[in-house]
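Hey, weird one. I pasted the Phosphopantetheine adenylyltransferase sequence into the form twice and got a warning about non-standard characters only the second time. First submission, copied straight from the form history:
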Amino acid sequence: MKKAVFPGSFDPLTLGHTDIIDRALPLFDEIILAIGTNSSKKYMFSLEERLHFLKETYKNEPKLRVETYKGLTVEFCKSQNAGFILRGLRNAQDLEFEKAIGQTNYKMAGIESVFLISSSGKSHISSTVVRDVIHHGGNYEFMVPDVVRKK
């Protein structure tokens, strides 16, 4: 069984995230959408809201499961018997950053990283940009799924 973990804070879930998730579905038997929690990080959306965003968006997709975790992603992967970490790449900076993490994860736990390049028209979308637009009262609706727009 090919099982992948797609880790993130999903603060909030964006169309960039859903692009990667939707395109990865045919590649794996199961994908765990794993919300990493960090008590020292300040989130715009509560953990409950972020869980709701993911569960509601993918309520009809049996190959997806939503979980939360603390600590190292590779340790969570091992606890879930997942052999892959799924990540999206928007640009060259993402590639360099994710490459180093992927190489480290493989050395630590033998877990492979699978990278999907953002679809055309989605590479400008990030949770950081969405949060900044929301914070300043701008229109963010074109960057997020319906469930986030309703907030």
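That's the output from the first submission. The warning seems to come from a hidden character in my clipboard, not from the data itself. The longest strand covers residues 30-36.
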